[in-house]
Amino acid sequence: MAAQARVDTANGSRYLTQLCKHWSHNFPDTTFTPERGVVPFGEGRRFTAEADPEGLTLRVEAADLEALTRMQGVVAEHLARFAFREDLGGIAWTRAG
């Protein structure tokens, strides 16, 4: 299962880097560039982010709906923490294929 969200911000690359660096301490297989990051959380769970000048595209993948919903919350909470100076609005997740 997967869900995706788009966040409009000029700081997408910065937030992508902060998220990936934060999680790389616990998940050493994390990879990232200023434009794309992947965090393999294990147990079929994965976070992917892609940044461009207009924003950040977030994607979470999980084996079941409960894990997917939990991943959405974790990503949204961490992003809000890193972006505390900016009102990103609510993150609207949609199911992705």
Structural descriptors:
TATA-Binding Protein, UCP028291, 97 residues, 32% helix, 2 helices, 6-stranded antiparallel β-sheet, DUF2218 domain-containing protein
Protein model, in words:
The mean pLDDT is 95. By secondary structure, the chain is of the alpha+beta class. The protein has one domain: TATA-Binding Protein (2-Layer Sandwich), CATH 3.30.310. It is globular and about 30 Å long. The protein has helices at residues 12-24, 65-82, and strands at 2-8, 31-32, 36-42, 45-52, 55-61, 94-96. Strand 2 (31-32) and strand 3 form a beta hairpin. Strands 2-3-4-5-1-6 form a six-stranded antiparallel sheet, covered by helices on one side. Helices cover 32% and strands 35% of the residues. The chain has two helices and six strands, in the order E-H-E-E-E-E-H-E. InterPro entries: UCP028291 (IPR014543). Pfam families: DUF2218. This is DUF2218 domain-containing protein.
In short:
With 97 residues, this protein is α+β, with helices and mostly antiparallel strands. It is built from two helices and six strands, in the order βαββββαβ.
Map the helices and strands.
Layout: E1 2-8, H1 12-24, E2 31-32, E3 36-42, E4 45-52, E5 55-61, H2 65-82, E6 94-96
Antiparallel strand pairs: 1-5, 1-6, 2-3, 3-4, 4-5
Query: CATH class, please?
Result: Alpha Beta
What is the terminal-to-terminal distance? 7 Å
In CATH terms, what is the architecture?
A: 2-Layer Sandwich
Q: Which stretches of 5+ consecutive residues score pLDDT under 50?
A: none
Write the H/E string, N to C: EHEEEEHE
What overall geometry do the principal axes of the alpha carbons give?
Answer: globular
- Beta content: 35-45%
Could you give the order of strands across the largest sheet? 2-3-4-5-1-6
User: How much helix is in the residues?
Assistant: 25-40%
Report the CATH superfamily: Alpha-D-phosphohexomutase, C-terminal domain
- Specify Rg, calculated over alpha carbons: 12 Å
What CATH calls the topology is TATA-Binding Protein
Biggest sheet layout: 6 strands, antiparallel
Organism: Methylobacterium nonmethylotrophicum
InterPro entries: UCP028291
Protein name: DUF2218 domain-containing protein
Pfam family, one: DUF2218
